[in-house]
Design brief:
This protein is of the alpha+beta class. Helix content is 24%, strand content 34%. 12% of the residues are buried. Bound molecules: zinc ion.
Length: 112
């Protein structure tokens, strides 16, 4: 049986960023967007579950990416207040497999 599985990375924007930050690299004002990256596990390209959400910043002017460990403490406190919600579609596969499992249990124990 051929079973293709693995992990992929997706990036999401915050719905309400609470204002953009200033870039310390190119000294532009208000050009740093706050984003989040997460990984999801998939089987046959159907997302099963998401994990490992990490906040990052990206300057729209100089394209500099900064990960959590590279962000100064003052900015990091502001960034950590922003909530990111992983879309439900990245958990759709686990719901699908639970339905199959429930159907299997129903078939074995209820119908016999
Ligand atoms: Zn910049």
């Amino acid at each position: 049986m051929l079973l293709i599985f693995g992990t992929r990375i997706r990036q999401i924007k915050a719905k309400n960023e609470g204002g953009r930050l200033n870039c310390s690299h190119c000294k532009s004002n208000g050009t740093v967007a706050i984003l989040a990256r997460f990984k999801y596990f998939h089987i046959l390209w159907i997302p099963i579950f998401a994990y490992g959400l990490k906040r990052i910043t990206c300057c729209t002017h100089c394209k500099q990416f900064r990960y959590t460990s590279e962000i100064p403490q003052g900015e990091l406190m502001r960034i950590n207040k922003i909530e990111f919600k992983i879309p439900l579609k990245y958990y759709s596969g686990s719901g699908f497999f639970m339905l199959i499992f429930a159907n299997l249990i129903f078939t074995i124990f209820i119908l016999n």
